[in-house]
Amino acid sequence: MQKIETHRLILRNFTEADSQGLLEYSAHPRVNCFLDDRISTIEEASLTVQKRSRDDSYIAVCLKDSNDLIGELFYLKEEPDTYSVCWNFNARFEGMGYASESAKAFFEYLFMQKDARRLYAYVEDDNYKSQKLSERLGMRKEGYFLEFISFTKYEDGTPKYENTFQYALLKKEWLNQKHS
């Protein structure tokens, strides 16, 4: 993908230099949906970064002044023009507006460069930070799915199902927000 710059951030493909940053926020996932992406060693992080560097659907979010990785954005395209979107950020950088700043640029890229018509995100009902981010981005709550998906198990081995919201935004809504 082409590099995107915001006021404080750079959005770009992953590079080998991102291994340590990825390990920092992937070693201890704070949200169950990232448990399968848990990384325990710098070697695992390096292999993951190598794969992601060749995959434009994974976008590294880096501080402009240091190029340090602070999180990631990613998408999955559903033909012909719908994209499932997600984000994962290092807790050390929470509360500074980086997720919102990068996601706005990400949405602009998907709508204007990738010709997305519709974006949607699944957010667990206990992930309040992502719910607030979705709302700040102008996404509307479209649905609430009870016991929608399981990423982990209870101590007795039975699956723990997550109650999940679906948020969505249409390109025409995005354009109206920008011009209002």
Query: Looking at CATH, which topology would you report?
Result: Aminopeptidase
For the secondary structure, the number of strands is 8
Rg of Cα set: 16 Å
Oligomer: single chain
Main beta-sheet annotation: 8 strands, mixed
Name of the CATH homologous superfamily: Gcn5-related N-acetyltransferase (GNAT)
Low-confidence parts: none
Strand content: 35-45%
Q: How many helices in DSSP terms?
A: 5
End-to-end distance, in Å?
29 Å
The average pLDDT score comes to 94
What is the approximate shape? globular
Give the strand order of the largest sheet, numbering strands 1, 2, ... along the chain. 1-2-3-4-5-6-8-7
Return the string of H and E elements. EEHHEEEHEHEEH
Number of domains: 1
Secondary structural class: alpha+beta
Domain N-acetyltransferase: 9-161
Protein name: RBAM017480
GO molecular function, one term: acyltransferase activity, transferring groups other than amino-acyl groups
Pfam families: Acetyltransf_3
Would you write up a description of this structure?
By secondary structure, this protein is an alpha+beta fold. 29% of the residues lie in helices and 35% in strands. An eight-stranded mixed beta sheet has the order 1-2-3-4-5-6-8-7, sandwiched between helices. It is globular and about 50 Å long. The model has no long low-confidence stretch (mean pLDDT 94). GO terms for molecular function: acyltransferase activity, transferring groups other than amino-acyl groups. Residues 9-161 form the N-acetyltransferase domain. InterPro entries: Acyl_CoA_acyltransferase (IPR016181), GNAT_dom (IPR000182), N-acetyltransferase (IPR051531). This is RBAM017480.
